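Q: Please design a sequence for this.
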């Protein structure tokens, strides 16, 4: 992977015959510039700086110092009074380059903003939908990103270990979730990467259960789904524990989910599609007669956002997994009103296979 991220976007723009790309999604702005503030946009030029037109970054006076520290020199940094969109487009409308093809993210730009753009631009300009262009580049993590992702994984693992040492039985689901989130922050996380799930007994049959003010009892299954946002990058992991003795059926379902997880993780490598890897886990669960209780997709990409491309599901596209993808593998079986089991690791796709990012064991563990 060579050149800056903006250079790679510019190369893609040239291939599409697009002259400029308006970037309004803040996650994509951060990916391209390193800027972590809450108000900014960027314009990426298909031309290189030697041709007289380079990349531009725009924000307001609140972020003048921060943007000077974070935004690289290959961007012309502009502090705008008023609307950022007006500040971005006004110089374009007055230049002598003639009609231009301006790319925009049609999955992110509002109808109101699109209408305003058409009013600002001179006659002859074309607005070219470019949704997914940057997200596609974000799917492949570079070495710096992988270092940050591994650090996020280690922090999340350590936080859960500390919480488990303090015990589970008798504490409420909500208390454990808050303890986990505060522990991640104390270890250096910016925040949880999503609201933590702590769900015991019949509540664990809800894939996206919200922690309750209900005490965790003995002799039940408990699902914990958590992650840390650290240095801009998310982690995402799930473990199901026992709080004592569990039934033969509960143990059987746990071993089934674990087998589906291990077989799917073993199939991770460049080449298969997300649909194909999903099928491997799904067939294991279906063969045991539990297919109707595995209703969600097998996994998703993780990075600057906790849910991003690629997807691993029955409805995933035909694009193959590629080295540098970071994905989750999270099969589950949920028996309504009774219990649920989910086991989730996230992994880097390498040429050799899937490299698990979690250091936590997966055998059913009893925690008091």
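A: Design:
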């Amino acid at each position: 992977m060579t050149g800056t991220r903006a250079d790679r976007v510019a190369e893609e723009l040239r291939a599409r015959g697009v002259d400029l790309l308006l970037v309004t999604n803040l996650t994509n702005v951060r990916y391209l510039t390193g800027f972590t503030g809450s108000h900014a946009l960027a314009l990426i030029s298909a031309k290189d700086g030697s041709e007289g037109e380079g990349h531009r970054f725009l924000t307001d006076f609140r972020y003048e110092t921060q943007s000077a520290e974070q935004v690289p020199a290959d961007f012309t940094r502009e502090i705008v009074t008023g609307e950022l969109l007006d500040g971005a487009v006004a110089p374009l409308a007055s230049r002598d380059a003639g009609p231009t093809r301006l790319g925009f993210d049609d999955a992110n730009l509002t109808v109101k903003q699109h209408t305003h753009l058409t009013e600002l631009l001179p006659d002859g300009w074309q607005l070219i939908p470019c949704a997914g262009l940057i997200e596609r580049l974000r799917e492949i993590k570079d070495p710096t990103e992988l270092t940050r992702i591994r650090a996020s994984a280690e922090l999340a693992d350590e936080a859960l270990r500390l919480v488990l040492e303090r015990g589970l039985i008798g504490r409420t689901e909500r208390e454990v979730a808050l303890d986990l989130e505060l522990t991640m922050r104390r270890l250096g996380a910016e925040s949880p990467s999503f609201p933590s799930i702590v769900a015991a007994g019949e509540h664990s049959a809800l894939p996206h259960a919200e922690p309750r003010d209900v005490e965790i009892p003995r002799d039940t299954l408990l699902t914990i789904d958590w992650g840390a946002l650290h240095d801009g990058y998310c982690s995402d992991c799930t473990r199901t524990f026992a709080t004592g003795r569990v039934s033969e059926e509960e143990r059987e379902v746990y071993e089934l989910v674990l087998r589906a997880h291990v077989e799917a993780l073993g199939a991770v490598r460049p080449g298969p599609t997300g649909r194909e890897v999903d099928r491997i886990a799904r067939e294991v669960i279906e063969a045991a007669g539990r297919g109707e209780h595995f209703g969600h997709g097998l996994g998703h990409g993780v990075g600057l956002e906790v849910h991003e491309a690629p997807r691993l599901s029955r409805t995933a596209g035909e694009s193959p997994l590629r080295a540098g993808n970071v994905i989750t593998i999270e099969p589950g079986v949920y028996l309504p009103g009774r219990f649920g089991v989910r086991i989730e690791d996230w992994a880097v796709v390498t040429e050799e296979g899937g490299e698990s990012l979690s250091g936590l064991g997966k055998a059913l563990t009893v925690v008091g």
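Q: Thanks. Anything notable?
A: Residues 26 and 40 are 7 Å apart (CA to CA). The first strand starts at residue 20 and ends at 23.
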